[in-house]
Amino acid sequence: MSARKIVLDCDPGHDDAIAIMLACASPEIELLGVTTVAGNVTLEHTTRNALRVLDLLGRADIPVAAGRDGPLIRKLSTAAVMHGESGLAGPLAFEPSRSQSHLTALQLIEEVLRQAGEPITLVATGPLTNIADVVRQLPEAHHLIAEIVIMGGAVELGNWTPAAEFNIWVDPDAAKIVFEAGIPLTMIGLEVTHQAWLSDAHADHLRGTGRAGQYVAELLDHFVKFHQDRFGWPGAPIHDAVTIAHLIDPTLVSTMAMNVQIETTSPLCIGRTVADRWSVTGLPPTAKVGLTIDRDRFVTLLLSAISHLA
Ligand code: RIB
Ligand code: CA
Predict the structure, then answer these.
(1) Does 15 contact ligand 1 (Cβ within 6 A)?
(2) Where does residue 296 rank: exposed (0-12), middle (13-18), buried (19+ CB within 10 A)?
(3) 9 lines ligand 1 (CB under 6 A)
(4) Quick one: pLDDT band at residue 208, thresholds 50, 70, 90?
(5) Do residues 77 and 160 make contact, with C-beta atoms less than 8 angstroms apart?
(6) Containing domain of residue 34, as a range?
(7) DSSP track, 241-303
(8) How far is Cα 95 from Cα 234, in angstroms, rounded to an integer?
(9) Which of 57, 104, 179, 229 is most exposed, with minimal Cβ within 10 Å?
(10) Which secondary-structure segment (H or E) carries 114?
């Protein structure tokens, strides 16, 4: 089975950083490029963080291109309270060895789509602003996209408001464009990712397994404490890594095709993914939506991959 060629659009962010590592650790994935978007923290920080993580892995060969510094219409509102102002609170910060690509995120994605020789999977683990640009500005390249896999949304409760998950809430207008594009779409939402948590014990398991394992342990030291203090949970959900794990092993997450629409105006429910779980609207499906995950196999896969990185 040849490796799945992907571009990862992200807003590192603790869990985005771990998703990058999982992609680089897995022979099932060929990470052709990383693009960054404002979300968890500002674009400057998400871009530097992507460069840092790839440096840590010795993968300065993978291009990093910066995209949008804010949502299409709304004002940027970050999650710095969770991830720290830098976006990667916990480990000691180090200067990236290189600058980002001279290409924009959109230009890098277009270049990869046109040169890959086979359809590419776009994985998005931040707000969908850059992906909305791809949909609107590259209409003649849609057939070069195998599918779009996002971390975002929820069938039931939100995590940033009672109604909305953070990535969709930051840029609901972009999400609406992506969900209405007609490109094969998989939505890995909170029903799945809230089960994909790691705890202090997992951090201790990784400590001393190598540079990457040590770095993830220090990320978790911050990320787990935040979730324990804020929510009283046993650990921190590694939301974004589930998108990559799903591509590595499609048996981990069960999905169901359903109509999902994005609320873009209601002050109370803006950013909600309105998922027709019981087909009451009769509207055609717009996404495959994650419903369950084999938590134990996910944790085993993730810890093994990280601990085997250099
Ligand atoms: O709601 C969780 C999502 O928002 C994750 O992608 C996390 O990194 C933040 O971006
Ligand atoms: Ca993210």
Answers:
(1) yes
(2) exposed
(3) no
(4) confident
(5) no
(6) 4-307
(7) HHHHHHHH-TTSEEEEEE-EEE--S-TTTTT-EEE-TT--S-PPP-EEEEEEE-HHHHHHHHH
(8) 32
(9) 229
(10) helix 105-115
Residue 83 annotated to the active site: no
Q: Which ligand 1 atom sits closest to the C-alpha of 13? A: 8
pLDDT digits (tens, 9 = 90+) for 148-168: 999 999 999 999 999 999 999
CATH of the domain at 194: 3.90.245.10
Q: Among 10, 43, 168, 240, which residue has the most ligand 1 atoms within 8 Å of its CB, making it the best to mutate?
A: 240
pLDDT band at 191 (very low <50, low <70, confident <90, very high): very high
pLDDT tens per residue across span 4-13: 999 999 999 9
Nearest to 45 by CA among 76, 5, 7, 73: 76
Rg, Å, the chain Cα set: 18
Question: Is the distance from the beta carbon of residue 261 to the nearest atom of ligand 1 less than 6 Å?
Answer: no
Q: How many domains does the chain have?
A: 1
